[in-house]
Write a structure and sequence with these properties.
Number of domains: 4
CATH architecture of the largest domain: Roll
Strand content: 25-35%
CATH class of the largest domain: Mainly Beta
Structural class: alpha+beta
Shape: globular
Number of helices: 15
Distance between the termini: 29 Å
């Protein structure tokens, strides 16, 4: 799509606000149009213009979708949404020339700026016997905290931390409005390793001028010490030569039993690698069956993104996806002709039906009363890692009736956020709650998606009906979602490729359809 460079505009709104524009389809006009921009609203300030066309919403190509589907995608994005926008003249010219606007090899520019825009950086530090080798300081008249006393050759220096870098996140939590004492406490509680999101002065000024929120999804991973691995394979007579497995004690899709001399072994796949993506599609939230089917659809060539244990721990520490590595490296690793041959898509999850996406992106507020048998669940944690999750929910017990499920991630206990609490602290809060308990939880896939969108999962979301489900212990069993057991160890697919076909069309008898967003 040379000559037609969409711009990426990221909008953030406060609770109760809109993004400040109408999304409209009009008789005689192609595409999803931006209209009626609110003066001084988020959209107008970010650079949207009247007549601009929306091409993508959070990476999903929407030019062929119906108006209602696009509206639902925007609404389901929560407080932050990213658009790929093309101006009216360019859009009409591209259409007249038959340009494929979904071409994944077109590199967009963020909010209309040059593609070599500076990036924030993720820095991962592992404490040595002498500590991390830096201090933090505040500057009078400037917001936030800054790195100082970065010792040359020490841990922080080797990790990419520079003097006067501004601290944005600590282990995936935004700390821009924290006090000095709160940040120091969070760093001390982080244990033996920590992930920072940092910006230097030039990068900070750039994003402030463009009114773009600085977040980890924009960062470079070039400073990180561990890298995911891109495994490019061609199927042999006996398949790829590995098994794909889900295990109850570990989240994700794991590589097992690699055959000696197989395509998988020759490509560098290792036992117990965790599978992140297949041909550029992130599969963390996919079921085992969906991942197997996706590999089958690849045909005789398959490209996997995997992480080993150390890399996985590092990315999870920062609450970021290894897909950042893919997006940063794929163009240099795979020239356009190669990716076209492999049919690699833009690395975003394929668009799911709107109703399913709404169901996926709903945390749960679970309210329960203690019975003689207790609440009926176990709270699990991993030693040295923040975060708690639910296990061993007793069928028919108080937790089960309140909507808790195995592997739900705990966000709040009785209104108090426990994402950065230790296991002991969270257990103590539950024990001290008396005979009633309220827990804000989310399925892992929901938690990861909301965090990736920059949505803080708090009780403030109770006002956002599209995001929160409220469960009480008296919900009838007939209303509960049916659970299915998954097979423990299906073999890696060796079937021939299955051709994919898809078509999307929309029509309306109305001349104009619009929605305030």
């Amino acid at each position: 799509m040379a000559g037609y460079k969409p711009k990426v505009i990221s909008l953030t709104k406060r609770p109760g606000q809109t993004y400040g524009f109408y999304l409209r389809v009009e008789h005689g006009e192609d595409g999803h149009l931006i209209r009626c921009l609110e003066m001084g609203g988020p959209a107008e300030l970010a650079g949207m213009k009247d007549g601009d066309r929306i091409l993508r919403v959070n990476g999903a190509f929407v030019d062929g979708l119906s108006h209602s589907e696009v509206v639902d995608l925007v609404r389901n994005s929560g407080a932050t949404v990213a658009f790929h926008i093309l101006d009216e003249a360019s859009y009409k010219q591209a259409k007249s020339e038959g340009v494929n606007l979904s071409n994944p090899h077109n590199t967009p520019v963020a909010n209309g700026v040059a593609k070599q825009a500076p990036k924030p950086k993720l820095c991962y530090l592992v404490k040595s016997t002498s500590g991390y080798g830096f201090s933090v300081r505040s500057v009078k008249g400037e917001q936030g905290l800054f790195m100082t006393d970065v010792l040359s050759g020490n841990v922080a220096d080797r990790a990419g931390v520079k003097e006067n870098d501004r601290l944005v996140e600590v282990n995936g939590v935004n700390v821009e409005y924290y006090t000095h004492e709160q940040v120091v406490d969070r760093i001390r509680l982080a244990g033996s390793s920590i992930m920072f999101l940092l910006v230097d002065k030039e990068t900070d000024r750039y994003y402030q001028n463009k009114r773009i929120k600085i977040e980890a999804s924009l960062a470079t991973v070039s400073h990180l010490p561990h890298e995911p691995c891109i495994i490019d394979m061609t199927k042999g007579s006996n398949g790829y030569g590995f098994l794909l497995r889900e295990e109850p004690t570990q989240t994700g899709h794991l590589i097992k039993d690699i055959d000696r001399g197989s395509p998988a072994a020759r490509a560098g796949l290792k036992d117990r690698d965790r599978l992140v993506a297949v041909d550029g599609e992130e599969v963390d939230s996919y079921s085992h069956e969906q991942v197997v089917e996706r590999i089958r659809q690849s045909g005789n060539k398959c490209c996997l993104l995997v992480v080993d244990k150390d890399t996985d721990i590092m990315y999870k520490k920062g609450r970021v996806s290894p897909m950042l590595f893919w997006e940063e490296r794929k163009d240099s690793l795979f020239p356009p002709s190669y990716t076209e041959a492999l049919n690699l898509p833009v690395p975003v999850r394929p668009l799911a039906p709107v109703q399913e996406r709404e169901e996926e992106l709903k945390p749960k507020l679970c309210k329960m009363e203690k019975t003689a048998a207790g609440y009926g669940f176990h709270l699990n944690g991993i030693q040295g890692v923040y975060g708690q999750y639910i296990k061993e929910v007793v069928k028919g017990g108080a937790a089960d009736r309140a909507g808790l499920e195995d592997d739900d991630i705990v966000v709040e206990v009785n209104g108090v956020n426990v994402e950065q609490s230790s296991h002991e602290e969270a257990v103590a809060m539950i024990r001290n709650s008396g005979n009633s308990l309220e827990m804000l939880v989310a399925k892992k896939c929901v938690y990861d998606q909301l965090k990736a969108k920059g949505v803080a999962i708090t009780r403030l979301l109770l006002g956002e009906a599209s995001y929160v489900q409220v469960h009480s212990a008296d919900i009838p069993e007939a209303c509960k979602e049916e659970k299915h057991e998954r097979p423990g160890r299906p073999e890696t697919p060796t079937e021939p490729a299955r051709e994919r076909t898809s078509s999307v069309s929309s029509s309306s008898s109305q001349d104009t359809i619009d929605e305030r967003l």
